[in-house]
Specification:
323 residues; alpha+beta; Immunoglobulin-like; 35% helix
Length: 323
């Protein structure tokens, strides 16, 4: 009886120690695995900023989905999508495409989808693409992930064109300055020559010392005149080509005007054919030209406001009008 009692006490102690440890270890391991699975992004987007001419490339990483059999739903407002891989079957549902994968029957580790933008897309739009993965062996087990893409303006070509125009204007300005400088030097040379001839005529009646003194004074006078003329011709006027304000009659810009910010957006009603734009220059000598604010078409219209400084430098402000 005494031996049985000791054995029972030992058995109870082992149970109290081993069972909680096993449960704690198993639960902790399970939580870690679940957290790691949830932390991994099982799909990604190649470029989260695209232009109106680009497509959205979405890559599904099959290796990062821990289920062997699963269904994945890609949800978005985009309805035109192509799959790069040949052996992938998809079906369409409302605002979604559905792909079913069995890892034991496929050698794929990634699936690439190419979405085309809607025709109504405009610069500044934010496009959401979500994915829901459901375990094929347990329909109640699933996980989801959402990504966002922004439509931006394609500005590289315009910037390159503006840079080329600025370089051309600088070259023309430099050539013009060289021509003016040569003209000044030519005029100064003629004046110096005439002055020298007159001095030589008078010097025939004077001594050699007087002749040398007169010639030295004449030469100094000619150099001063040349410098004064160069300084006057080189000034081309003010280079200030900034606006101090832009007002679109009856509408508000998408952000507060700043002279350093050259791009703005405005939305108008479908029936609007033109918009009136009032501008104010910082320097009264600058001139303004406005293009594209009439005969507005459905969709996005680009309005250009060119500000030409007194010295010829041009700055362009843009307003994208959507109707």
């Amino acid at each position: 009886m005494k031996k049985f009692t000791i054995f029972a006490i030992v058995l109870i102690l082992i149970t109290l120690v081993v069972v909680p440890f096993t449960y704690s270890y198993g639960t902790g391991t399970k939580n870690i695995i679940e957290q790691e699975a949830e932390a991994e992004d099982f799909f990604y987007i190649e470029n989260t900023e695209i232009t109106l001419n680009d497509s959205i490339q979405v890559v599904i990483d099959i290796d990062k989905i821990e289920y062997y059999k699963f269904k994945i739903q890609m949800i978005s407002d985009l309805n035109n999508v192509e799959v790069e891989e040949d052996d992938v079957n998809i079906r369409e549902e409302e605002n979604a495409i559905v792909i079913e994968i069995d890892k034991e029957q496929t050698t794929l580790n990634k699936i690439t989808l190419n979405y085309e933008l809607l025709e109504a897309a405009i610069i500044g739009d934010k496009i959401s693409i979500a994915a829901v993965v459901t375990n094929g062996e347990d329909a109640e087990e699933s996980k989801s992930l959402e990504k966002e893409v922004t439509v931006i303006e394609e500005v590289e070509e315009e910037n390159e064109q503006n840079n080329n125009e600025n370089v051309s204007e600088q070259q023309q300005s430099s050539e013009k300055q060289n021509e003016d400088k040569q003209e000044v030097e030519k005029t100064s040379s003629k004046e110096s020559s005439k002055s020298s001839d007159a001095i030589n005529t008078e010097s025939n009646k004077e001594t050699e010392n007087s002749k040398s003194s007169s010639s030295s004074q004449s030469s100094g006078s000619g150099k001063t005149s040349s410098k004064s003329s160069e300084s006057t011709v080189s000034y081309k006027g003010s280079d200030n080509n900034y606006l101090s304000n832009i007002i679109v009659d009856g509408y508000e810009l998408n952000k507060t005007f700043s002279k350093e910010n050259e791009t703005y957006f405005v939305k108008v009603a479908e029936e609007i054919q033109k918009i009136d734009i009032d501008t104010t220059v910082e320097d009264d000598s600058a001139k303004i030209s406005i293009y594209g604010n009439e005969e507005l078409k459905t969709g996005t219209n680009k309005v250009l406001i060119n500000v030409t400084a007194e010295n010829g430098n041009v700055r362009t402000y843009r307003i994208y009008v959507t109707k």
